[in-house]
Amino acid sequence: MKKISIIYSNPDNREAMRYIEQQIQKIFEGFVTVEPCYFDQLQPGDKIHADALLLNGKQLLTRIRPYIEESGNLIVLTRSISRKHLPELLQIPKNEDVLLVNDTPESTMETLYMFYELGIFHFNLIPYRQEEQDSGCYSKIRYAVTPQETGLVPPEVKHVIDIGYRQIGSDTLMRLVSVLHLENETVNSNLIRHLQNVVEPNTYAHNSYLESYTKSLILNELISDSGFAILAFDAQGSLLFENQKARNIFKGKASEALSALPEEECRNFLFTVGDSNYLLDRISLGMDEQKLGYIISLQDEHEIHEAENQLNRRLHQKGIYAKYSFRDIICQSEAMNQCIATAKKAALTDYTVLLCGESGTGKELFAQSIHNFSQRKNRPFLAINCAALPENLLESELFGYEPGAFTGAQKKGKPGLFEQANTGTIFLDEIGDISPGLQSRLLRVLQEKQIMRISSDKIIDVDVRVITATNQDLKRMVAEGKFRQDLYYRLCVIPLEIPPLRARREDIIPLLKHFTGTDFHRITEEEKAQLSAYDWPGNVRELENAATFFKALGSFPPLVSMSACQQSAADAPVQSPVSASPRIRGIDSQQRIQYDILNLLYTRASTSHSTGRPEMLRHLQQNGTIISDGRLRIILSDMEAQGLIRIEKGRRGTSITDAGIQKLDEIDAESAQESGRR
Question: What's the CA dihedral at 63, 65, 66, 72 to 10 degrees?
Answer without folding.
Answer: 150
